[in-house]
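Hey, I'm writing a tutorial for new members on how sequence and structure tokens pair up, and I'd like a real worked example in the thread rather than a made-up one. If someone can provide the structure for the chain below, I'll link this post from the tutorial.
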Amino acid sequence: MLNKSILKKILRRPSFLGQYRLFNYLFVRQELNIGNKITSPLIGNFKINCDTSTWIGSKIMFTGDYEPELKSIFKQYINIGDTVIDVGANIGFHTLYFAELSGNTGKVISFEPVPYNFKSLLHNISLNSYSNIYPHNLALSNKAEEFSISINEESVNPGAFSLFNKGEGSSIKCEIGDEMLKEEIVNFIKIDVEGYESFVIDGLKQIITEQKPYIVFEFDRNYQQKSELSAAHIFEILTPLGYKFFEVTNNGLVRFDLDKVKSCNVFAKPNNLN
């Protein structure tokens, strides 16, 4: 077994060439599993409990970050006083950063439907002193319904639990975003729900039409197929509303090309905003 402190010193630096490959190599060989540990990220003044047996927890603990390319977008486009919606909050890594960026006068409304993940989200909120986070154990969709999904709590990637995986297990409650958030002035929306993104955006269409928030969402053709909607569905909704689309990469934003991209995070920006 390799010395964990040395591994942490090697990995816990701003993103460097080969970092992801090295981390993945060590993770799959269980060299980074040190149980549950509380840490702080390289960027962000908050604490978070990391289950290092999971990919996300281990990534945060040993590299000090998770999806840094997205955090640069968050930092640039979320301001003090903003209302941020986090759809698919998981253990709360982005939720906590949103709370810092939006400040005491802002608001972070987080949705995490899987009870197993929601428990971790609440715990991580409790480790910090933010008073502007409002968590909900719900999924956002285009219709109100309840169903159960099958999950494996021993999974190394609890962030990949899918609402398409119907079966005995965790009870999921879905609500329509426009109804849940009708009293809010929304500035920024982040959506990462393993292929359910189309339904989330369908259910937020009124808010998006009227308020034109910035939107970051995950696009994955394999996940999208589970929705039985076309890969272009989200873009067909947002384009007539005046949005333009960018692929979020480690080197910044590049124009999104639906014909070429299989999987990425997409930044949707209203044309009338910088």
